[in-house]
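Chapter review: from sequence to fold.
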Amino acid sequence: MRHLIPLLFLAACASTQDQPAAPSFPDTCGVDAYTYLVGQPATALERVLIMQEVRVIRPWTMVTMDYRAGRINFKISDQDMIADVSCG
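The token string follows.
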């Protein structure tokens, strides 16, 4: 048992460089133009004109699992802040 403790510490210090990078998805909906909204209150969406399909996803909201490449998803946090913007 005494020999396992140093191994646990070594495992905790392992490099993260060996892990693969998160997959990057193509910007099929023009989401890069709206990433500045992340961290702002959800009411900031009222001041932005978006001329394409948009889905606002609030906590505990049920959403369909369909993927639409041209749709922008705005995920709202429990604190009513824009937490994420993505295509789909």
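Two observations follow directly from the output. Confidence is low (pLDDT under 50) at residues 4-11. The two ends are 50 Å apart (CA to CA).
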